[in-house]
Design goal:
The protein has 34 helices and 32 strands. With about 1000 residues, the chain is α+β, with helices and mostly antiparallel strands. The strands form five sheets. Strands 14, 15, 16, 17, 20, 21, 22, 23, 24, 25 and 26 form an eleven-stranded mixed β-sheet that branches. An eight-stranded mixed β-sheet has the order 12-32-31-30-13-27-29-28, sandwiched between helices.
Amino acid sequence: MIQIIHSSVKGRARYKIDELYRSQSLKIYLERSLANYPEIISVAANVLTSNILVIFQPDVSYRKIAYFIDKALSAYKDKAGFTDVKTLAKPTKKDKLTVSKYEQKTENWHLMTADNVLQSLNTSHCSGLSNETANKYLNKYGKNLLSATVTRSEISMLIEQFKSLPVALLGVAAGISIFTGGIIDAVVILGVVGLNAAIGYVTESQSERIINSLKNCSEKSTWVIRDNKLQEIPTENVVLGDILVLQPGSYIAADARIIEVDNLTIDESALTGESVPVTKNPTLLHGEDVPLADRLNMIYKGTLVINGQGLAAVVATGRFTEMGKIQQLVTEAKITQTPLAKQLDQVGSQLVFISMGLCGLVFGMGVLRGYNLLAILQSSISLAVAAVPEGLPTIATTTLALGIRDMRKNKVIVRSLNAVEALGSVQTICLDKTGTLTENKMSVVEIVTDSKYIQVREGEFITGEETINPYTCNELLKLIHVAILCNESEVIKNHDGEYLVTGSATENALIYTAISAGVDVMALKEKYPLLQTNLRSENRNLMSTIHATHNCQQMVAVKGNPAEVLQLCHRWMKNGEVVPLTVEDRQKIEIENDRLAGKALRVLGIAYGYIEEVDNNNYQNNHESDLIWLGLVGMADPIRKGAKELIADFHEAGINTVMITGDQSPTAYAIAKELELNRHPQLEILDSNNLNNLTPEALAALSDKVDVFARISPSNKLQIVQALQTSGKVVSMTGDGINDAPALKAAQVGVAMGKEGTDVAREVADIVLEDDRLETMMIAVSRGRTIYNNIRKSVHFLLATNLSEIMVMTTATAVGIGEPLNAIQLLWLNLVTDIFPGLSLAMEAPEPDVLNQPPRNPNEPIIKNTDFGRIVFESAVISISTLAAYGYGIFKYGISPQASTLAFMTLTSGQLLHTISSRSEKHSIFSQEKLPPNPYLTTAVVGSFGIQILALVVPQLRSLLKIAPLNMVDTAVISGGALLPLLVNEGTKKIS
């Protein structure tokens, strides 16, 4: 479908073609085929806006041009031999090639002339390779594909849930139970293990699917010259020596050496981290160590053509490209285990060995006392299971899963359960500048006219403390108008009346500034129709356009390098009048230019002039002389909204911030100062030139003192993260580009952007900010710290209650008063009192000062040495109370089911009430300052008591657990035995 957007100017019309969106092949076909019509002067199609601009003879109807476009579009669709891009890019089984064993030769291509490069590759910029040679290279070196980032499979995520020593012990215990006839025991044990695995698997697999859904569709085809013809081939079939045809809006298929250019600019921010598009040229470079970002005669796979066109010879494909090398770094970077995972593994392993020892001790004592061998074996196994809190992995997993759920509400996708906790323990956060701290979009921040210094902030023009209206300032309004006219960005309005601007970041910034000033951009362009465009060239850093006006004159609009534009000016606009430009005036302008450049701004000079009407077909004269100077425009990649406040929040939380960027040191320094990145009086910055000369040990020692790393390569980022880890820090890395991927994977927590980030970054990150809002990281930090504190409370509770079971069983066996609890009662006890009460503790509300505390020491155990004394005391109180109730039962009923029931009910009730005592280490039920209510805890305790009562009421459960009926006195003994430990433990908190 062809839609006519604009046709009011004779000889100029703009059309919208839906099929043109992201179709580079259709763009090239339309431009080439329509140019053959004598009625048409020029054609420019845009694959991002789906628009095509046609300049044609004024006496020709725009409807006739639409007919030509429709005819060309139909021919394109029906063209013989044409294959749909999706079909073209889809390899058959026959086509699939394994990675070749042949290495591609690596040369310093940027240090070679274009002719020498072509000769070395046995290719020609006119005819390219022959199809026969291309197929030979394809078989020799393999397809132009990157090795896919290894993502976790469904099976591996499920298996991960069972990889721990406590789970292994529970599995062994279940196996022995089956072997000895305890089928029910085994079912209960395996049920708990399965529940834990299911929670972890479901949560992690859901996050993985969401992240995979964010992947972008990469371009599947590429235009090259082969056999002296322009051909569209699958990107994966590009080989060494192919001549790439570069057009705006296309992604570059492979690393290549520039051969010819026409105003070619490339967005390399995803690879180098530099936010400003780079102007390319084929000129030979000199010097041994030319940084990647300074190789102006090279283009790289995965980067984007912004403007212009050109030809380039492919020098590396697939894994041999710069992107392929980064992919290799990603593969080599090792994933680091988080602090909580280490702590829980350590606690679990210790409990396994303790339980094995106790199992052997109780079994030995039982044999010596002449107990039934099978019965004492089953009790010993049950006791071993009791020593390992079955609820520990379930509580940790579920708590982290609930953290993930809360994150998702804030558009934060967490790939793994442990990542939330790890972010809460981060001590240093490495922030990538471009696209993370900044918006990766240029914007005008300062304008200098004759005597005014104008700050541009959030669409307002401010001089001093006064906000000015551009329509009351002739110099400013004229500057804005000229900046719009001398501009190649396409501007359209959508159905909501909002502007859609497509073009280079610099020119888009000028358009948006005009829009914020209230200028009708489209109307202005229609008022001054474009007649001629003179683009930048290799030795000419400015652009000019010529426009028709309402009188007999034509206007020349110029923007570009301030020094070059100033040389063309003899007059300037001052106080609303055009006056001669003196030597003194020129010096003042040069000083202002240096001032703006010193603030790390990109500076443009703006000027204009008038000429008499000339022949529009005479393009030899650009009429760039005797111009009128208007002023300077300073642009910057703006800092993200809220970034400065976020840095302050990180510092308040005791987290060090480090900025990593590919920009030059002055730019990086200026941004870091604006963000107040330094926590110390002096801002420390380290350039990659100095970094490369440091030993790993020296870098590790120095890294903790540096606030900014400048001119950093992808491998440098990985070095910095690893150096910080070597110095003992828990490190988080944020980023959005391909160049961030290795460091994202190596950091304990990698955080990637969801909207603007690259697929590679998202695939290796632990956390993805779906809406790119960096502020949500503080929510994750708060959640992580709270989760750790709450899990610590849960672990404390589980250890205290499970230890009380061990004390009761071991003491009774040693004294010779029988077994207070049988094997199935021990398993039931753990199931009722461990999981839900422990989980409710893990859902305690955050403490008010959680973000005012420094990060905890990652080497600090989850249960400190000082905690063990308190745990033993609490367990002893519960055990003594239970044994007292059991002793009463023996005194009244003898060693019988009735006595065992008293012990069972007392211990269960005492453990459930101990949940209340475990809510805080300092606050007690007797404290004046009360803790915030926890409805989950109330529900868990009441519900667990309800389940325990069911065991008394339901005959089948009573028979299974071997419980005897209770009278009123027995109930009073159980109530007293359960309440006494709560009162003692709460009353002794301040003493402890």
